Amino acid sequence: MTTHLISAPPVDLMMQHRINNVPIVDRERVVGIITRTDLLLVLIRHAETGNHATR
């Protein structure tokens, strides 16, 4: 892992820095990962259902 840390909303990071995966960290422990595919699937589901609120 790199020592240079970038912190921002996942979509911003992914687009600006061409990052495909973003780790989710809680108290210095990696607890998950978000991929571009994850974000796209959520956007598609919301568009199909007309639901614009986040869950």
Automatic annotation (TrEMBL):
Transmembrane segments: none annotated. Residues 4-44 form the CBS domain. This is CBS domain-containing protein. InterPro entries: CBS_dom, CBS_dom_sf. Pfam families: CBS (PF00571).
